Amino acid sequence: MIRAFVYSLVLVFALAVPADAADQFVSVIEDLPLIDGLIENENAAVTFEAAGGRIIEAEARGNIKPFDVVQFYDNVLPQLGWVAADTGVFERESERLELDITEDVDGGAIIRFSISPIKGK
Fold first, then answer.
1. Which end of the chain is more exposed for a tag (fewer CB within 10 A), N or C?
2. CA atoms of 112 and 67, how far apart (whole Å)
3. pLDDT for the residue numbered 13
4. CA distances from 67 to 26, 70, 93, 94, 118 (A)
5. Model's pTM, two decimal places?
6. Class of 21-117 per CATH?
7. Could you give the angle at the alpha carbon of 58 between the alpha carbons of 54 and 60, nearest 5°?
8. Based on the number of CB atoms within 10 Å of its own CB, is 74 exposed (0-12), middle (13-18) or buried (19 or more)?
9. Residues of the chain with pLDDT > 70: what percent?
10. Where are the domains of the chain?
C-alpha cells in the first residue's frame, strides 16, 4: 500500500516536469529557466527598476535548434504563470516577457529575454 502511494507520487512529479527541464535559471530573472544547452551571456544582462515596474534584458546562446527553444518555452512558461499573448510574447500580472529567438551562423540558437511593464496596467 505504501509502495503504491510512493510510486504514485513519483509518477505525478515525473509527469509535471518536462523531460528537457532546465537545471539553471537566467541570472537576472530568478524564476525563468534556462533550457539545457544554452549558456547565458551574463555581460549582456541589464536590469532597471522603475516606478512602473522592472525592465530586464538577458541573452543566451548555444548549440541547440531554435525550434527546440521555442517548444521548450511554449511548454514551460504557462506552467510558471505566463500566458501567451502573441508569438514569443507572454504576460503575467503586470509584466510582459518577450523572447527573441534567432539562429546563429552555426545553426545554434540565440535567445534574448526582455521583461517590461505592461502599459496601462
1. N
2. 15
3. 38
4. 19, 5, 27, 28, 27
5. 0.78
6. alpha beta
7. 160
8. middle
9. 81
10. 21-117
